[in-house]
Write a structure and sequence with these properties.
Elements: H1 2-15, E1 32-39, E2 42-45, E3 49-58, E4 63-67, E5 71-75, E6 83-86, E7 91-95, E8 102-105, E9 117-120, E10 134-135, E11 143-144, E12 154-162, E13 178-181, E14 188-195, E15 202-205, E16 212-217, E17 224-227, E18 235-242, E19 250-253, E20 264-272, E21 290-293, E22 298-306, E23 314-318, H2 321-328, E24 333-340, E25 345-348, E26 363-365, E27 381-382, E28 385-386
Parallel strand pairs: 1-3, 2-4, 3-5, 3-6, 4-7, 5-8, 6-9, 7-12, 8-12, 9-13, 12-14, 13-15, 14-16, 15-17, 16-18, 17-19, 18-20, 19-21, 20-22, 21-23, 22-24, 23-25, 24-26
Antiparallel strand pairs: 10-11, 27-28
């Protein structure tokens, strides 16, 4: 038996010791293909370069997994509203890494070329007049809202969406980089980038999901936006960089309903580059770092604000008296450890009907606030430029 083992070892050694002149190095081709239509079962795409065509819908019971390092390019030649849409009951798993993100892009690099990533769930919402269900504004007219606070729509890690925010046929409504309709707390959202879209970078329509390590860079409307009683309470490390065109750093509203709850976000950096104008090139008053309106509220801590120096702009805008009465005076808006780098006023209202003043301890400043702390990597680099500033 020992002799047999020795003989086999010698044969294996001789077969494995070919000279380099005779070696053939083979590499597997990177997969390509088109992602289109409805997904009703479990589908997985390995590392590859793919095209997304039309609106791909992950239906209830279906799932889509795309592995790290993949690039998915929107094919817009047919004029359809290309988007990746997860319906309630469907799941999306985008398994990027810092070095190998999953990237969704468009070849012309034109903001508004396609519809981005849209996810629906059945977590709670509170809409206008306190309604618990509503219809989406993304052109799909899908119902959202429910009672499942722990809804799980999958996991999005190290994902970049570029040039989204497609305008709909009504010429007013638009999609965003990432749109989350009543998405629940069981969904994982980590290390996501919305890059140069024509509407909001990230928008939350109610729900309970939280998001960590977000970058909203160069989006035309608001960097971060929410409504319908969004109540994610474990959000951290949000960075907005507005350049050329952009409105609010954060637009915070609650459909004019005085909720007993609000979201929580810690470690926030909001930066507006010199020369940035509001959407459409106007100087209309949508240039503030943070705007609260229609009973928007929440707690925001370790906030750094830079560059919001347009005449009459302010770091924190309270847009209407109802929001001041219910949310500011009511103690439901807290801004803690705020650092303003360049002389922008701390807060203001609109007109002369009310003067903004926060209850003691609900608006505090700090010279040592750090804002968002993000780890650099390929996930946050576009065309050789790091988005982490």
């Amino acid at each position: 038996m020992k002799k047999l083992v020795l003989s086999l070892s010698i044969v294996a050694l001789s077969l494995g010791s070919c000279s380099s002149d005779n070696e053939e190095i083979t590499t597997q081709p990177i997969p390509t293909g088109t992602i289109t239509g409805d997904i009703t079962t479990a589908k997985t795409y390995p590392l590859g370069n793919y095209t997304i065509q039309g609106t791909v819908k992950i239906k209830s019971g279906g799932s889509l997994t795309i592995e790290a390092g993949s690039t998915i390019t929107a094919s817009i030649a047919d004029g359809t509203a290309d988007a990746l849409l997860v319906e309630n009951g469907g799941k999306l798993f985008l398994n990027g890494t810092s070095a190998l993100p999953v990237v969704f892009t468009e070849t012309s690099k034109t903001p508004g070329s396609w519809g981005g990533i849209i996810m629906f769930g059945d977590a709670p919402i509170v809409g206008a007049n306190g309604v618990t269900t509503a219809t989406s504004e993304d052109g799909n007219n899908l119902a959202y809202g429910g009672t499942n606070a722990a809804h799980n729509g999958g996991s999005l890690k190290y994902v970049r969406v570029e040039y989204a925010g497609k305008k709909l046929t009504d010429n007013t409504s638009e999609m965003n980089g990432f749109s989350f309709y009543s998405v629940g707390s069981g969904t994982v959202l980590e290390n996501l980038v919305a890059y140069k879209g024509a509407d909001d970078g990230f928008e939350f329509y109610g729900g309970t999901v939280s998001a960590k390590n977000l970058i909203s860079y160069g989006n035309f409307d608001d960097s971060f936006d929410w409504q319908d009683g969004w109540r994610g309470d474990a959000n951290t490390n949000w960075l907005a960089y507005q350049v050329a065109t952009g409105n609010y750093g954060m637009e915070i509203e609650a459909k004019s309903f005085n909720n007993a709850f609000g979201p929580k976000v810690s470690n926030i950096t909001l930066t507006r580059a010199a020369g940035t104008v509001t959407e459409g090139g106007s100087s209309a008053a949508e240039y503030d770092a943070i705007q609260f309106k229609k009973d928007g509220n929440g707690e925001y801590s370790n906030v750094v604000i830079s560059g919001y120096t347009t005449a009459n702009s302010t770091a924190v805008r309270i847009q209407d008296k109802a929001t001041f009465d219910n949310q500011v005076t009511g103690g439901k808006i807290k801004l803690l450890n705020v650092k303003i780098n360049d002389g922008t006023s701390q807060f203001a209202g609109v007109g002369t009907t009310f003067t903004v003043a926060f209850p003691t301890g609900n608006y505090t400043t700090s010279t040592t606030s750090t804002g968002a702390t993000l780890t650099a990597g390929a996930w946050a680099i576009v065309d050789g430029v790091s988005l982490i500033k």
